Structure formats: structure tokens, C-alpha cells
From TrEMBL, chain B:
The chain crosses the membrane at residues 28-54, 74-97, 109-130, 150-170, 210-236, 256-276. Residues 74-277 form the ABC transmembrane type-1 domain. It is found in: Cell inner membrane. Keywords: Cell inner membrane, Cell membrane, Membrane, Sulfate transport, Transmembrane, Transmembrane helix, Transport. This is Sulfate transport system permease protein CysW. It comes from Kaistia hirudinis.
Length: 364, 294
């Protein structure tokens, strides 16, 4: 608490008032290739939202549109109920943290963080002493004390990213946008910074968009996770929602290891290539659907009743268990299951199994 | 189990020699060839320029370079550089910016065109200007009607010099600007900086060493240019002769001492350029490395 409290007690600094952000039907096309197909999202003031999706799913594009670095082809963006698209990037009052830091390499840590304050028009510029106090307060907040005279090249990746965050926070942004901020860092540093970022957010309370392709990072850090794929939002929800009730085969597959099989729903149960699987599909409409299960949620069964049947085509050690790669059904769909290491290898590699937990997804 | 044969102790291997290392003799020969080449084609001529310049003593040197027509040539050279270097500074930054930061049709054509002055003979460049602005040229007569004289006058010399030295600054800037991308500028804009402040406080400092280097090279060439300037100058004594032209005139008049005196000034300019460049590279090695690295 003390870092910010000390800035506040100077009386010269109020944090940028966090605002609601409303994204309405935002479409973005680059030379006819669509990158966003009508994205809509409501984010409450002070919320930390993770945009999660594979590379190329449109996360950066959405973030740049929010920042004003790109203009959408169609749609609206509101900050606190006011149209934001009419505002130039300079006037949007957003803090943008780039994946590759984009620190000013000819400036010290101090000057980097002070930049947003020193470039203000004279009338709005704080006094030199105020700027100094605020920058030192931010250096304290991001735990870089004593490094204020260093140049960016003299810092580690994690330290650079913290400078980038402090620089973005210095302008008291209404919205904080982070584009894969930890993407270039190694695993341990990522984990530390993740916790640290959450703490900073809890103290400062900015409305924050956090882009990542790392599901663990998103699920651990965010109040809400927005899963994106191919320029569309697949699902919005808490980490529990996303993990326990994935809305689409894509989310199911992206959130953890999975096998997906094309099935048909008939009489409330899933049928694979005309063979009953014995897996119920409560509530699913009859017709084509996708069956999803996780490799570790599978038990082997006797080959006499309804089950999934496959032939082993490869196997490898997977942690404490053994992973089998199978061709399943008559049409040789690929699937993976985990079995005990000591499990006997069946005759001819033929195997029957049954997921203990599974999901049936309606077609798109 | 692998079979292991126990036999007589194996002789110690010869000292390891990296396969990429040549023999000592080869190395020495290569170094000697390089030094001999430099000595014959660089140091010897350079030293003889200064030797000839000062052969008749320092006062003779001073007299030669302060003689009326020579002094006028020096002034004109400085004037030409004072116009063409800033002009190319603006053109070069603008062209490099456009090429490095934007995508547009005809970009590769523009890059090729920037290199044109490098690949075209300077004499041809000069002739193009005569064709354009000369008394029999396309727009020369029109300009003459308005009392504007370009060929055989200072404006023509400045134009030809700008043309010849155009690539230096742009060529230095383009690769470094391309490598750096636009992220720093975007960061500055997102922090509230105006376009001008972003340019002067972020974009320009990011390329300042490349820019300075380009300016040095551009200046050296602007002052030393002979071919193109020779065509458009008209060699009017005390009026349209630059230093290189003056050297030639003095030389043709068998005034060797004076010719070498002026030539030594040009050689000094070259040495000065090299020294400033080396000092900069040494003094700011860290920062230069920082701007190059990404
Ligand atoms: N400046 C651009 N010009 C053309 N296509 C682009 C541009 N930026 C992004 N794209 C395309 O838009 C899609 C989404 O990209 P992006 O938003 O960067 O994805 P992500 O950040 O999720 O990896 C990609 O297919 C990408 O190729
Ligand atoms: Mg991205």
C-alpha cells in the first residue's frame, strides 16, 4: 500500500479514474482479410480481463483498436459510456504495455517513466519536483529502487517489463492494456511477475486488458477470461466457467489436453460412425455433434458392450502414465488416452475404452 | 556391452588446431599483402599530398590557400555544403521514414531510385541538369526570361551536389529504421506525446548515430564532388569554381604547390571525417550498440 499512498499523500496525484469499457460489434479487416468478425464485450471499471487465444486470433488487433493505434472497420468502443473512437491515441488516456517493451533506449529508467508527464503541454505538466516524486514512487511500486539511472539495455527482461508498466502507469491511465507482457520471459520470471501484476492491479484498480496465449496465466490472473479464436470471442467467463463448462470444442481443446471426435446424437446418446458409444448426451439435439474428453479421464473396458474402440498406433511416456495414440472408429479418427504404465498391451493393439467425463458440443 | 580392446597406450593427440585457422605463414602473408596494398594506394599518396603542399614552406602554403580565387573557391565549397547537406538531411529522413514505416505501392522502385546517384556517373548527372536548366535546355530559357540563372551559376552547383549526395543519409537510416519498427513511436503516442514531440524526442534520437554518420559522409562528398559540379559550373574563376575544380585548374596551370595546398585541405576534410566517426564510435560504443540491438 505504501508506495501509492505516498504518491497520493502528496496531493498532486489522483489515479486515473477507472472506467467501464464497452466493445460493440467491432470488425477489423486488413486489406479484405478479416482479423476481427464483430467482437462485443462489456468490461466493468476496475476489472482485470484476460484475452486468451492462439497466435493470430486477433488479440493484439483488438488491443490496438482500444488504444487508438488502429481504427476498426466497423463497430463502437465506449470508455465510461463515451465514444472513444473519436479520440486520438494521445487523448484516450490509456496505458499500453508492449510485448517487446518498446522502452526508449536512449533514456534512463527514470526518464522512460517520466516521459508521459514531461511531454504534456506546459499548462498540464506537473512541476519538476512533482514529476520526480511520482516517478520515484512508481519505481518503488514496481520494485526497481536504485535502478533509476540505468539504461534499458542494462536491465534484465523482467526488469524492462516492469519499467514498461511503470511508464504506462505514470500517465494515470483510465484503461491499462498489456499485450503478452510476459511473453518473452522465461517460465520462473513469468510466474513471479504474474503474481506481482495481480498485486499491483489489486492496489491500483485499473480497468485492465491482459493479452496472453498461455491459458495457465490467464486462468490464474484474470477476474474474467475472454477466449478468442479466429477473430471471434468463443467464450467469456471466470476461470471455473471456462475450465468446467467450455462453450465450444475450441475452448475445450485450448484449455487443456483433449481428444475431439465427430459423433451423431441419436436417442440422447452419442454414436460414432454408426456404433453406439454408450455415452449419454443429455439435452443435445439429435444430429451431428462433437464429443470431447480429456486423455486422463479415460478407463479401459471389456470389449463387449457400447464403448469407444481403437487401435494403438503409437505410445509414449507421459508423466506418471503412458499415453496412447489411437485410431478410433471405422473412419480412423485420431484420439489420445492415458493408461497405467503397467497396463498389459492388448492383442493386436485393439483397445476399448470409455471416458469417465465427457462433453457433447452442438455443431456451430 | 561394447567390446573394449586394451592395447598399447595411445600416443597423445597433437595439439588441437581449429579447422578454420590457416597456417601461420598464410596469415602473415595475408596481413602483409593488405598492409602493402594500403601503403601503396592510400598512405603513400596521402603523405605525398601533404609533402607537396608544404614543400615550399608553411607561408607559401598560407599564401596559396588565401589567394583570391582559391579563397573564393573555398567559400563556395562551404556554401554548397551548407545548402546541400541540410537539404539532404530533410530529404533523407523523409525518404527513410516513408520506406521504413509505411507500406505503399512502388516502394521498391523508390529504394532503387534512391541508389541511382550511386550507380550513375557524376558526369551524366551534371549533363542531366544542363539538359534541364541549360540555355538550350527544357526549362532553362523560361527561367532565363525571369532572370534566373542555374547552369554556370551557384544554384546549378548546389542542385548537382544535392543529387549526387542524396543517397548517403537515406542509405544510413533505412536499415536501422526498418530494424527498429514503429513500436517506440507508438509507445510515445500512447503516453500522450504529440507527433512532433514523438519525432524529436523518440524517433530522431533512436537514429541519431546513423544520422550523424550519414551527415558526415554526405558532407565529405558534397565538398569533394568533382564530376557533376564540373559539368554545371562553367569554371568561372573566382565565381563558380569549387575546391576540387580549383585544384584541377591550378594543376593544369603547372601551379603544383598551390594545387596540392588546396588538395591537402580536402584530404584533411577526409581525415577529419574519419577521426570524428572513430571518436564517436569509441565514445558512444554502448549507446550505438543499444540503438542497433533490438
Ligand atoms: N498490420 C496488419 N496487416 C495485415 N494483417 C494483419 C496486420 N496485423 C494483424 N494482421 C492479421 O490479423 C490477424 C490477427 O492478428 P493479431 O491481432 O496480431 O493476432 P494475435 O495478437 O492474437 O496473435 C492475423 O491473421 C494477422 O495476420
Ligand atoms: Mg499478438
Amino acid at each position: 500500500m505504501n508506495a501509492l499512498a505516498s504518491i497520493d499523500s502528496e496531493g498532486s496525484v489522483a489515479l486515473g479514474e477507472p472506467v467501464d469499457v464497452t466493445i460493440e460489434n467491432v470488425v477489423k479487416a486488413f486489406d479484405d482479410t478479416p482479423a476481427l468478425h464483430g467482437v462485443s464485450l462489456d468490461v466493468k471499471a476496475g476489472e482485470l480481463v484476460a484475452l486468451l487465444g492462439p497466435s493470430g486470433s486477433g488479440k493484439t488487433t483488438l488491443l490496438r483498436i482500444l488504444a487508438g493505434l488502429d481504427a476498426p472497420t466497423a463497430g463502437r468502443v465506449l470508455f465510461g459510456g463515451e465514444d472513444a473512437l473519436g479520440l486520438a491515441v494521445q487523448d484516450r488516456n490509456i496505458g499500453f504495455v508492449f510485448q517487446h517493451y518498446a522502452l526508449f533506449r536512449h533514456m534512463t529508467v527514470f526518464d522512460n517513466i517520466a516521459f508521459g508527464l514531461t511531454v504534456r503541454p506546459r499548462a498540464q505538466r506537473p512541476s519538476k519536483a512533482d514529476i520526480r516524486r511520482r516517478v520515484l514512487g512508481l519505481i518503488d511500486l514496481v520494485q526497481l529502487n536504485g535502478l533509476d539511472k540505468r539504461y534499458p539495455t542494462q536491465l534484465s527482461g523482467g526488469q524492462r517489463q516492469r519499467v514498461a508498466l511503470a511508464r504506462a502507469l505514470a500517465i494515470e491511465p483510465r484503461v491499462l492494456l498489456l499485450d503478452e507482457p510476459f511473453g518473452a520471459l522465461d517460465a520462473q520470471v513469468r510466474k513471479d511477475l504474474r503474481r506481482w501484476l495481480r498485486e499491483i492491479h489489486d492496489r491500483t484498480g485499473h480497468t485492465t486488458f491482459f493479452v496472453t496465449h498461455d491459458q495457465e496465466e490467464a486462468l490464474e490472473l484474470a477476474d474474467r477470461v475472454v477466449v478468442m479464436s479466429k477473430g471471434r470471442i468463443e467464450q467469456v467467463g471466470s476461470a471455473d466457467d471456462i475450465y468446467d463448462s467450455p462453450a465450444s470444442p475450441f475452448v475445450f481443446g485450448f484449455i487443456g489436453e483433449s481428444s475431439l471426435l465427430p459423433v451423431t446424437v441419436a436417442d440422447g446418446a452419442a454414436v460414432l460412425d454408426g456404433v453406439p458409444t454408450g455415452l449419454s448426451a443429455p439435452g443435445a439435439a439429435a444430429g451431428p455433434a462433437t464429443l470431447g474428453f480429456r486423455p486422463h479421464d479415460v478407463v479401459l473396458v471389456e470389449d463387449d458392450g457400447p464403448a469407444l474402440r481403437g487401435r494403438i498406433i503409437a505410445e509414449r511416456r507421459h508423466g506418471a502414465r503412458r499415453r496412447l495414440e489411437l485410431e478410433v472408429g471405422r473412419e480412423h479418427h485420431r484420439a489420445e488416452i492415458d493408461v497405467e504404465v503397467g497396463a498389459p498391451r492388448p492383442e493386436g493393439g485393439r483397445i476399448a475404452f470409455r471416458p469417465e467425463r465427457w462433453r457433447i458440443f452442438p455443431p456451430r | 556391452m561394447t567390446d573394449v580392446t586394451h592395447g598399447a597406450p595411445v600416443a597423445a593427440p597433437r595439439a588441437f588446431v581449429s579447422p578454420a585457422t590457416e597456417r601461420r605463414v598464410v596469415r602473415i602473408v595475408l596481413v602483409l599483402v593488405a598492409i602493402a596494398f594500403l601503403a601503396i594506394f592510400l598512405f603513400l599518396p596521402l603523405i605525398s599530398v601533404f609533402y607537396e603542399a608544404f614543400r615550399a614552406g608553411f607561408s607559401a602554403f598560407l599564401r596559396a590557400v588565401t589567394e583570391r580565387e582559391t579563397a573564393s573557391a573555398i567559400r563556395l565549397t562551404l556554401l554548397v555544403a551548407a545548402f546541400s547537406v541540410p537539404a539532404n538531411l530533410v530529404f533523407g529522413v523523409a525518404a527513410a521514414w516513408a520506406i521504413a514505416k509505411y507500406e505503399f505501392k512502388g516502394k521498391s522502385l523508390l529504394i532503387t531510385l534512391i541508389d541511382l546517384p550511386f550507380s550513375i556517373s557524376p558526369v551524366t548527372s551534371g549533363l542531366i541538369y544542363v539538359l534541364m536548366f541549360g540555355a538550350q535546355g527544357y526549362i532553362g530559357p523560361v527561367l532565363a526570361d525571369h532572370g534566373i540563372k542555374i547552369i554556370f551559376a551557384v544554384p546549378g552547383i548546389v542542385l548537382a551536389t544535392i543529387f549526387v549526395t542524396f543517397p548517403f543519409i537515406a542509405r544510413e537510416l533505412i536499415p536501422i529504421m526498418q530494424a527498429q519498427g514503429s513500436q517506440d513511436e507508438e509507445a510515445a503516442l500512447s503516453l500522450g506525446a504529440s507527433g512532433l514531440k514523438t519525432f524529436f524526442r523518440v524517433a530522431l534520437p533512436n537514429v541519431k548515430w546513423a544520422l550523424l554518420y550519414g551527415v558526415l559522409l554526405c558532407n565529405a562528398r558534397a565538398m569533394g564532388e568533382f564530376g557533376a559540379v564540373s559539368v554545371v559550373s562553367g569554371h568561372i574563376r573566382g565565381k563558380t569554381n569549387t575546391m576540387p575544380l580549383q585544384v584541377e585548374i591550378l594543376y593544369n596551370e603547372y601551379n603544383y604547390g598551390a594545387a596540392f595546398a588546396v588538395a591537402s585541405l580536402l584530404a584533411l576534410l577526409a581525415l577529419f571525417t574519419l577521426i570524428v566517426k572513430s571518436v564517436l564510435e569509441w565514445r558512444y560504443a554502448d549507446e550505438i550498440a543499444a540503438t542497433r540491438r533490438h
